[in-house]
Design brief:
Order of helices and strands of chain A: EEEHEEEHEHEEEHHHHEHHEHH
Number of strands of chain A: 12
Shape of chain A: globular
Largest interface: A-B, 52 and 52 residues
Oligomer: homodimer
Largest sheet of chain A: 5 strands, mixed
Distance between the termini of chain A: 20 Å
Number of helices of chain A: 11
Mean pLDDT of chain A: 89
Radius of gyration of chain A: 21 Å
Structural class of chain A: alpha/beta
Low-confidence stretches of chain A: 318-343
């Protein structure tokens, strides 16, 4: 019997089977997320990628004992409901866990994607060997996961660790979440790109030093422009990096972690990001928590979420294993049940 | 054998003996903190108030098995060093635990005062019956303590939960701690009073609606002025209350607590404070963590810190009881040792 894991994202659906020996992820399958049929279409797609993973490791669906799914958006693990993730248009309060159970007939655990990535980095990546870690992923949005004495900080609704929705500028820009001056509204990849677009819009004389199509520039383009000396790109990226530094300082003061791990696409920006964070932390953080912590880049890349699910499958997180064994006993158990095979 | 508890503050030194039955605090003694001789003088004073407490319950110093001290300022429980608490002038890296041991010869545990108050409210006050609590004390400064699944969030240096030193306005006022735009720099009692002084300084026409001596107004005077319709007092207090609301929203998003408890002198401000917090939380917080939490006033008043020490003495906090039994075995144990009596 095995555990299947899924990393559901706005761009890709990935799946794999957890191996307890050797390579932890076997039968890896990746497809571009098909948003055409809304949440029901994506849920059917999860079934298809899982079937491929199971087949490719040479076992049958009846060998799958349970399923762990990393999902975008705030999610309440107890109810299995996913609340309007920003990268999944049309997803509003989707009862993902019960829908997956209807389709697959295996007990399923949901985990917020940033929390899953935090667990992955904690057990297998930049945080391994520590006890207290803050993980910040700077991507389309900004997510987070906090590990306190080896346990994922979850809270009664499972929504703790929303580091991207911490106000760092109380009179700052409106955030999509409804709050004001959130770190995400200032420093996410989306915010960096749109601030760049706004800065160069209508500026006829703007000749980017890098070969950037300014009207379609992504955050990665802004980073390239910043290194190439393009002035709007440089000042906008530095401001975002300073904001991330302020977020790190807040995390040092609130959580007193051993390590702060920065992941997500924007974490590939190199020294312009990490030198700026170091400067802000050096200037602003209180000495004791500053000296206790290091700030470093995530190491698992796109695998962080799946590896977090592996950690949960291996029982590395007591709260997760409670969840696994705490599935409603009235629900039929999937393994050994031929009807449970996804079509 | 008994545990003695001390609440060391910038204004008062309080002590008591923990009773395991009936009234939890017996032999209560309170003196104004005597700062004249610096930290050594205050430490000697702690010895005197403790001797009074012990005598008043009819036992001898040899009956005191251990001591728990709530102290201002960041403190590392492991080393027992107190770092420059803002209300204790001249205290810089005072090795309070070892100095108390030299004087009193009993194993001593130090706890940050806001953390102690958080434990008190969690076990005996506004947080009792919950699992996850954020405590914010708004007084001379702003302190905090966070309880996660029944455990005090501490961190490797013991400095977690510094909610007052969370930046909520990254271009805001400089804080004494070195950081910028901290909640404390905007909304502490000290900040409220000094912002009021600055607002009315040189304003000849300012006729306060309340009978406030504007040049010496305290935060409590500003609150009175705000209720009486004094315009500068009202706008400054409302701004501070909104900032506290922003801090509460951040705590909801980061910790997803069951309850947020507001203590400290400023928490006596009544509806002008709590209605403003509710308005900001209603407008800005994400629905799921908002619905999970209530925001309420602390209930233990000045006793919160001592009651937190009682919780530790009764072993309600596993980390604290580990600490109690984890005292260096090479150190002599105080109970039964006549030499240990403070002179």
């Amino acid at each position: 019997v095995s555990t299947a894991v899924v990393d559901l994202g706005g761009t890709y659906v990935r799946s794999a089977i957890v191996s307890r020996e050797g390579e932890p992820l076997r039968g890896r399958v990746q497809q571009r997320t098909d948003h055409a049929q809304g949440s029901d279409g994506v849920i059917a797609q999860i079934g298809r990628v899982l079937r491929e993973s199971v087949a490719s490791v040479g076992c049958g669906w009846e060998d799958i004992e349970n399923l762990i799914v990393s999902t975008p958006g705030p999610v309440t693990p107890q109810t299995g409901i996913v609340f309007s993730p920003p990268n999944m248009l049309g997803w509003n309060d989707v009862p993902l866990r019960s829908k997956l159970f209807e389709l697959l007939h295996v007990p399923t655990v949901l985990v917020n994607d940033a929390n899953a990535a935090a667990l992955g980095e904690f057990y297998f990546g930049a945080g391994s060997g520590t006890r207290n870690m803050v993980y910040i992923t700077v991507s389309t949005g900004i997510g987070g996961g906090v590990i306190v004495e080896g346990q994922l900080l979850s809270g009664p609704s499972g929504t703790a660790g929303e580091i991207g929705h911490m106000t760092i500028d109380r009179t700052g820009p409106q955030c999509k979440c409804g709050n004001v001056g959130c770190l995400e509204a200032i420093a996410s990849g989306t915010a960096i790109a749109s601030r760049f677009h706004a800065a160069v819009a209508g500026v006829e004389s703007h000749e980017p030093a890098a070969s950037v199509d300014t009207s379609r520039a992504t955050a990665a383009d802004v980073v390239r422009g910043a290194y190439a000396g393009d002035e709007p790109a440089r000042s906008i990226f530095l401001d975002a990096a300073e904001a991330i530094g302020v977020g790190v300082v807040n995390c040092l003061h609130l959580f007193n972690p051993d390590v702060v791990v920065i992941g997500g696409g924007v974490s590939n920006a190199g020294p312009i990001l990490f030198d700026t964070i170091d400067r802000i932390v050096g200037a602003r953080a209180m000495p004791v928590p500053r000296q206790a912590a290091i700030v470093m880049k995530a190491v698992l890349g796109d695998d962080a979420g799946l590896m977090g699910a592996v950690a949960m499958a291996l029982g590395r997180t007591p709260s997760a294993s409670t969840e696994l064994s705490g599935v409603d006993p009235k629900e039929p158990v999937g393994h050994g049940c031929a009807d449970a095979r996804p079509e």
